[in-house]
Here is the input.
Amino acid sequence: MNEGNNKTPRKIEESHKSVAGSSPAVRPTGWKKFLSKRWVFPAAYMAAAAIIVTILWLNSGTGAKDSHKSVPSLTGVENEATANGQSSPEASAVISNGETLRWPVNKIEDMDTIVPFYDATASVEEREAATVEYKNTFSPHMATDLARKDAEPFEVLAALSGKVTIASQTPTNGYEVQIEHPDGLVTVYQSLTDVKVQVGDQVEQGDVIASAGQSELEPTEGAHVHFEVRNNGLSVNPNNLIKAAK
Here is the structure.
C-alpha cells in the first residue's frame, strides 16, 4: 500500500560545471601582480625621463665644433685671437659726434700694410702673415701695421677726435698713444717716436700726434705705425670699419 508513496526521494547532486563555452578561472601571474601596483608606472616614467636627460647631456658637448683650425705650428694662436676679441661684434663705423673712422696717415694710397689684422676666418696663409713671433712665442696681430711704400718716415694722425689717455713708452712696443672716443671706442697707436701729445689732451681728427718709429717687437719693419681699434675693450678690424664708412 501506498506503494506510489514509498519511493525514496533521490538526492539531487549538484555538480559544479562550467558554463558552456567559458574558460576556467585563471589566477593572476606574478608579473600581472607586479604591474597592478600603483607605484610601478610612475617609477618607470621617472626612470625613462632620467635616461633621456642623461643622453641629451652627454651629447650636448659634441654638437658644435670649431671650424677654424689652428695654423700649423702656431699652437694657441687661435685661442688667443678669440680671447682678444676676434669674435666680438664690429664697432659702428659712425661715431656719435658724426665722425667716421679714418686711417692714421695723410694718404693711405702711399702706404703698404706690412702686417695685417689677424682674421680667424681667413686662409692659413693669411693667418700666418698676421702672426707675430717674439722670443719664440707666436701671437695673433690684433692691429694693422702701416709703412710708406718708399720706406720714408711719416706723421701719425688721430683717427678720430677724443681724449688722450696714454702717452708713454712701453718695453716692447716703443712709444704708445691711446685716445678715447665716444661709445666705448679706443684707438691705439704704437711704434711711435717724437710724441706730440700728453695725457688729458683733447685732440681733433687729423691732428698730428707723433711720428712713425720702430719697436722691439717688430724690429724689421722700419718706420711704421701699429694701429689698433678697440670696441669696449675688444680688438676689431679697422679695415672693416673704414670700408663700412665709405
Summary: The CA atoms of residues 39 and 149 lie 83 Å apart. Residues 40-59 form the longest helix (20 residues). Helices lie at 30-35, 40-59, 77-83, 124-129, 238-245.
